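Researcher: I'm comparing several assemblies side by side, and this is the next one on my list. It has 678 residues spread over two chains. Same procedure as the others: predict the full complex and return the structure.
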Amino acid sequence: MTSTLTTEQAKALSALPDASGHFGPYGGRFVSETLTHALDGLTADYQRLKNEPAFQAEIDKDLQDFVGRPSPLYHAERWSAGIGGAQIWFKREDLNHTGAHKVNNTIGQALLAKYSGKPRVIAETGAGQHGVATATVCARLGLECVVYMGAKDVKRQALNVYRMKLLGATVVPVESGTKTLKDALNEAMRDWVANVDNTFYILGTAAGPHPYPMLVRDFQSIIGRETRAQSLEKIGRLPDAVIACVGGGSNAIGMFYPFIEDRDVRMIGVEAGGRGVMTGEHAAPLSAGQPGVLHGNRTYIMEDENGQIADTHSVSAGLDYPGVGPEHAWLKDSGRAEYVAEDDEPALDAFREVTQREGIMPALETAHALSYAKRLAKTMRPDQHLVVNMSGRGDKDILTMAEIDGISF
Amino acid sequence: MSRISGCLSTLRASGKKALIPYVMGGDPNPLVTVELLHAMVAAGANVIELGMPFSDPFADGPTIQLAGERALKAATNIQSILGIVADFRKTDDATPIVLMGYLNPVERMGYPVFCEAAHAAGVDGLLLVDMPPEERHLVAEHCDRLGMDTVFLAAPTTVDARLESIASSTQGYLYYVSLKGITGSGALNVDEVADRVAHIRSLTDVPVIVGFGIKTGEQARAIGQCADGVIIGSRLVATMEALADKPDEIPSAIGAIIAEIRHAMDTPA
């Protein structure tokens, strides 16, 4: 299935957001006046710096020497052959320093902090991957780093909490609300409002108020740009589809954005179906939610009948978020991208299968995208090609897997 | 003239300052709130800001977030808040009520439905924390038709050009946030606030009411020297938290605080 958009429509999509941060009816800036000045300042700093050669050169150098880019495009030959359909390729973000795509964004935003003279950095984190990536970059740049993390996640992800502490960061457990990622984000916003003079807020996903969805997308787009060039080189053409998991949606938008105008390339985002979208215990706002306003932007959200934000469930902490980046909301409504949900069980199966067939242990988040890729590949021919964004490695999930297997250390 | 503007201009003409308490509707349960509102008016409150609970109040501190959680636990929703207002209006047709909350529950109910119901219940104004003036269009048509005011915030960091546009968008009063931070934050610098408020008043005639960080009668009196009035929120909400398992005592305890602050504001320094 090829996108039905015209060339002009696709071009218009990739020109977004507009000046006020809207992607069609989504995005924008739904914040208290207390945050407006900080967001205006951030927007202005970014507009000024993004075309400054010294800034761009420093990002490029760090991505190469510190992160280890470009990440390879890997042909999962044995897994593809076993499935017996399309060829599946992995974009190896799992090989990045700190083990996931998150660092692409923290490098960019931490350099923004440095260039705009802010000595203190704050961040929110769910599973801890964005927190670790932020603490890592702050250690390297000599910036003070405070990470907000839901108290429930602090318990579940003790290893990452310790990693952040080793890197010199302060981890603040958040006791309010559901004590998870969304509450950590609320708390980071509160800190920022009070300390905006000396503090830079490194938001980890392509959501939040303008300019964050644009900022995070721009810094993550290196994934799709490299994938595009590597596909031309290794496959000899663009892939038939690119597939990525979607929580807040930063790895997916990084993969999708450079392909928006390539209308023959399907873009498929895979949300967390949890115990099944029909059970209500999931984290799939694009598949089963509706538009609303959360964390400063209009997007698809999960809510109850009174508009209160709903609890989410996923076996993967990184997808366990009741909202999604506003650009995904618009890519869905405009028909340019497709969004599906994969449940906990098939994702766990995909985790085991890829680990044993390819010797690559994916993050549980990524396993959702792999599970859908397998489903789709079966319906395709061997001369067709799918690229899955291998957004992170699974080392962090070993204890979760062991628990599922009934093993304790 | 709206009930809010009428109330504030009468106060201004008589040289008095507005005392505006904020409480969370339905905290700790919807049954308490009506009696509480009457007690606050009896003790000297001029306008009431009534909070609508939201699960993710990112502009508020822990005190108000917990109040929202207590209210939600007691199954408070917009319908029950509007029920509280309608009950209050049975015996008080004079005191203006401003509903304060976040956008999403209102959006879920639907803007026209919400505005009609709020107006019918006797609500005078709407302050949606995460609806900046740029997004007023969401409710503009309905609020304008019904004569319901939309109140907007200004912050210490708001630049002049924006201040002017906020002053021209806000109705009833302009809510000046007195410090960088969230509700319930500490240190209030009265001199700094006085400078800012004087500056805002040089730009607009709309009444300027100051909120965030005002806890004592002395602070309220000092702020009253420069502004049209004060909002007291977190201190009341913290008192209600302490009495959450003795809800019968809440109206008199809150009434006593309001009376104390009213007295300080009306007593020359």
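Model: For your comparison table: The two ends of chain A are 48 Å apart (CA to CA).
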